[in-house]
């Protein structure tokens, strides 16, 4: 059985449709009226995988992938027409004025916490949708407030509590409560932030609106970078007890939770797979100076920035935030995430070349993000295994 999963020009063997049992391709819907053959609606503004299959590829064969590519070209052309029509329309009415302000939300939370925890947990579980693998779900929605239930490992709840105490003006969700679902998973209940994902409306934002969006995002970043690291480790996740460090959950640092790191030498040793001397020889400018520890969102791609009527309205998904090297927000915004290419102009405006001038460290980070990290970590494990057999561990110079 042969399945075609990519364009014919990338196939090693000639594509003969009479021998193809299935075609798998990705689709992106810009129209809410599109449906699958069984009537299921195609999700809007979301990548979806589609699969066409047949038991007898010769009678008749599946449509040629070249026809699918041709249809894609026509669809993109039609999309441009719809974009021009949409951009000519004014922004929808702002949602933010309809939502409760922060004072009302804090008052509601205070009253709600007078209720016994056992009853609150029972109520939350009743509100959860009937699914086995919950990650993010909206458990309450109205015209003035919404509640989100999200599986949590402790880092995001601690981060939201820290933001509430130290940077209340940052447009982040407000933590309402924590509880365990029926399977013992820790769940965080937080407020819904008004707006839509920035990536879904970036195409219709004017250059002036984009500049203002970058300024507002930069102001929020400046606020969170003022939060002090009160723990002993220099680079760490967020702990409920501020004097203690915790593991880092950023997948660009490690495939599993790792750290915390006491100093930048330990961080560099880990990030270079135990071979900082190799990177120092090829990128000496990256190791010329030490970097401060700054509170970092670490995932500021355009899916995690919300826009309401063309303006920044919220920053969500703080689960991998922590205290990272001061360049990390820039490096992640430029070279990691689902839409780093679209977010680069925004981050360049925010940072004004600050870390590009400090030795192009982001180029080194880019190597980690785009495949080098796996090889480096593998090499690092090999080096550490040799060290445990009696070889001398590299010392800090």
Could you outline the blueprint of secondary structure elements for this entry?
Layout: E1 3-4, E2 22-28, E3 47-53, H1 65-87, H2 102-112, H3 117-127, E4 136-141, E5 146-151, H4 155-166, E6 175-180, E7 186-191, E8 196-197, H5 198-201, H6 207-224, H7 264-271, H8 276-282, E9 293-296, E10 305-308, E11 311-315, E12 322-325, H9 328-335, H10 340-351, H11 361-388
Helix pairs in contact: 6-10, 9-10, 9-11
How is this structure best summarized?
This protein has 397 residues and is an alpha+beta fold. Helices cover 36% and strands 15% of the residues. Strands 4-5-7-6 form a four-stranded antiparallel beta sheet, sandwiched between helices. A three-stranded mixed beta sheet has the order 1-2-3, with no helix packed on it. It has a three-stranded antiparallel beta sheet with strand order 8-10-11.
Describe the protein in words.
InterPro entries: AGP_Transferase, Aminoglycoside_PTrfase, Kinase-like_dom_sf. This is Aminoglycoside phosphotransferase domain-containing protein. Residues 150-334 form the Aminoglycoside phosphotransferase domain. Pfam families: APH. There is one protein chain. The chain has 397 residues and is α+β, with helices and mostly antiparallel strands. The protein has three domains: 3-87, no CATH class; 96-191, no CATH class; 196-388, Aminoglycoside 3'-phosphotransferase, Chain: A, domain 2 (Alpha-Beta Complex). It is built from eleven helices and twelve strands. It has a four-stranded antiparallel beta sheet with strand order 4-5-7-6, sandwiched between helices. Helix 9 (328-335) packs across helix 11. The protein is globular and about 70 Å long.
